[in-house]
Amino acid sequence: MEQPGPETSSASRSAVSSLLFWLRDLLLSVLLAFILIVFVYQPVKVEGTSMMPSLTDQERIFINKFTYRVGAIERGDTVVFWFPLDRSKSYIKRVVAVPGDTVEIDLGRVLVNGREIDEPYVPQEYRDRVSYPPTEIGERQYFVLGDHRSSSNDSRAWGTVERGFIYGKAVFVYWPLQHMGRLR
Asked: What is the residue-wise DSSP string for the chain?
């Protein structure tokens, strides 16, 4: 019987080496994806029409779960949070007032610290004529509204959202493809 020559053993070592490099790269990619999904970005499905036209029912978005660990929540941010009255549900709304602000709604016009805020993301047909009394936003509290004001269950109905309930910022639409892009 003939012994394998140096070419055969060299070829098998090369195949094993290639397989090990491929496995290493695959494991590294899976680990990186896991870290990104668990600690930074999370895919979320929008349910409902309260954020139209910015976000529509059944759209898929990515939220950044890391940004608020190092940065502040700002007026205008679209945030994802645990619903204050049922922590098993997540909501997505826009922040209109931050701690220390005084918010008031006068027949649909949102006033923060006595000044009407510019809301280009709320089309005229989605506005309502609801009023809300002047309210000072407490420390670590946020006043949030849906962009589709006439179809939104938000801070006007159940009050502010505690800072600890907010766990992400909506940053990117990835489905459907025709809506793909960064959220403003």
From this structure: -PPPPHHHHHHHHHHHHHHHHHHHHHHHHHHHHHHIIIIIEEEEE--SSTTTTTS-TT-EEEEESSHHHHS---TT-EEEEE-TT-TTSEEEEEEEE-TT-EEEEETTEEEETTEEPP-TTS-GGG-----EEEEEPPTTEEEEE-SSGGG--SHHHH--EEGGGEEEEEEEEEESGGG-EE--
